[in-house]
Amino acid sequence: MQAVPRERFVLPADQAFAQADCALPIGYGQTISQPSLVARMTELLALRPGDKVLEIGTGSGYQTAILAQLGYADVYSVEIIPELAQAAAERLRALGLTGVHLKVGDGYFGWDEHAPYDAIIVTAAPERVPQPLLDQLADGGRLVVPVGPRFAYQSLRLIVRHGASFTVTNVVDVAFVPLIHPPEPDPD
To answer: Quick one: the chain helix, strand, coil %, rounded to 5?
Structure first.
């Protein structure tokens, strides 16, 4: 975590708070999570050399950089807001981080093209665990996701796949911005 300069991932007005253990706004109604939560979520992934990781919600790219800095895995990251994705790509490139693949898209659906993933991390809160993410999780894979209602506390969950079944552990209550997922069009 010390190898990734958090101040590069926050807005200029918040640089003085970059090392504080708090969430900060990054624009577009999104936030960068507090470092202790980033560390805890990364730890829950239990990454091993050669793992393939899917991150939903690139945001500023901070969590992406932490994952890439570990050097264990290829990191595939999906961001729905094009401006955040572009800025994150520039930051990651400037830091010389390799093994990172970014895509602008709806993270609710994951990134099926590169599935299965050994680990999936979701950095915004869906009301329910998206089925596509469960489907893209490898056997023995770990999914770390905050789940719960919008604009309220959610439960950070660790979900481990065992063949066709899943073990779910509620880790801690957290507060995340909602996962942006456009509503399905009305068929009428």
So the answer is: 30, 30, 40
Q: Give the residue carrying structure tokens 């950095």.
A: 123
CB proximity list for 179: less than 8 A, separation 6 or greater = 56, 57, 107, 108, 122, 124, 125, 126, 130
**In this predicted model, what pLDDT tens digit does every residue of 69-127 receive, in sequence order?**
988 779 999 999 999 999 999 999 999 998 899 999 999 999 999 999 999 999 999 99
Q: What is the DSSP letter of 115?
A: -
Looking at the structure, give the CATH architecture of the domain made up of residues 21-174: 3-Layer(aba) Sandwich (3.40)
Q: Please indicate whether residue 33 is annotated as part of the active site.
A: yes
Active-site residue, from 33, 36, 77, 155: 33
